[in-house]
Amino acid sequence: MIVQTANFGDIEVEEKSLYLFEEGLPGFEESRRFILVNVEGNPSFNYLQSADQPDLVFVLADPFAFFSDYEFDLSDAMMRELALEGQNDVSVRVILNTRQGLKDATANLTAPLVFNTKKQLGKQIILGQSSYSTRHRLFPAAAGAAKGE
Fold first, then answer.
1. Position 149 confidence tier, pLDDT thresholds 50, 70, 90
2. Burial per residue of 31-63, b for 16 or more beta-carbon CB atoms within 10 angstroms, e otherwise
3. Which end of the chain is more exposed for a tag (fewer CB within 10 A), N or C?
4. What Gene Ontology cellular component terms go with this record (predicted)?
């Protein structure tokens, strides 16, 4: 199938490579089908492109590549909802805010995206009672450099 995108042109994908977000993403519930677009040469980043809306795309990052102490537990209910059978079937990404450029990007660590890579399911989960921020700096050194420190 062809996925029309505003940023990448038309992308040909196999239907089985679509990720289904059964409830959509908070604020974007009308889009349920997405593809992951890899960033060439950098496996820590992806784009999450809606297959339903050409202009809906998110910049994602592997949180574990940038925040070594990042962790959270998936409830049994969430494991069932995503049909997860084992740790090898799960991938986690976080949405980045890159409006100020990548060097000043922030990551939403309170609402990770969890993917079942075997069954092509995805869900954004909201971490309750978390010490994480919705705007955690991806590159902390950039904050000090911007302030002249």
1. very low
2. bbbbbbbeeeeeeebbbbbbbbbbebbbbbbbb
3. C
4. cytoplasm
Q: Could you report how far apart the first and last alpha carbons of the chain are, in Å?
A: 51
- CA 17/CA 128 separation, integer angstroms: 31
DSSP string, 87-130: GGGEEEEEEEE-TT-GGG-EE-TTS-EEEETTTTEEEE---SS-
Interval 56-112: pLDDT, tens: 999 999 999 999 999 999 989 999 999 999 888 999 999 999 999 889 999 999 999
Q: Taking the domain 2-143, which CATH number applies?
A: 2.30.290.10
Two tokens, residue 90: 């799960």
Cα 145 to Cα 149: distance, rounded to the nearest angstrom: 6
**Closest alpha carbon to 21 in 106, 115, 131:** 115
Which structure tokens are listed for 43? 């496996």
Domain boundaries, the chain: 2-143
Angstrom distance (rounded) from CA 6 to CA 15: 20
pTM of the complete model beyond 0.85? yes
